[in-house]
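Task: fold both queries, return tokens.
Query 1:
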Amino acid sequence: MKAVGQYFQNIDYHEEKNRRIQVMMPFQNNKKNLGGYSSYIMHDMPIHPDFEIEEDLIESENSIIYQQAENRMHVQKSLLLHLLET
């Protein structure tokens, strides 16, 4: 079975996508849900701005999303090197 996430923009998936958005929007990371706290913002990517996380939070000064992605890239490279050496 294929992962449903890869059909996010597929027109055939439109009804299921809208159902999931309705269910999940109360849990969206946004300024209101943070309640004034200034916590670090992390995300494992890929991001669908304004769905699971408010776009303003992605680019905020508390966002470490891009550093997190860069660190993951370096770890993946080192794992590949290790696997190729064995």
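Query 1 returned. Query 2:
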Amino acid sequence: MVINVLVIYLAAVNIAAYFLMKIDKKRAKNKEWRIEEILFFSFCFMGGFIGIHLGMVHFRHKTKNWRFHAAVMLSAVLFIVILPVVFWIRINSH
């Protein structure tokens, strides 16, 4: 049950992050109002780092911005390494 909810949550966050990158790239080309970077970073650290990364690569958007690369890498480490270790420690401590 918890795993299903987590998978649905992560899928939704990553899909939303990907389409935010698409929208921002389109707005950048049209010289329109842009999405603030803090929103991208928020999605990244909410688990949407895959969507942000795929959006960066697919739309060639924000690829020269080192902060986006750092945010994707840092949040990936957080979600793939640190959180599972914390959960494993908590489960085995009881």
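Both queries returned. Flag for query 2: The two ends are 21 Å apart (CA to CA).
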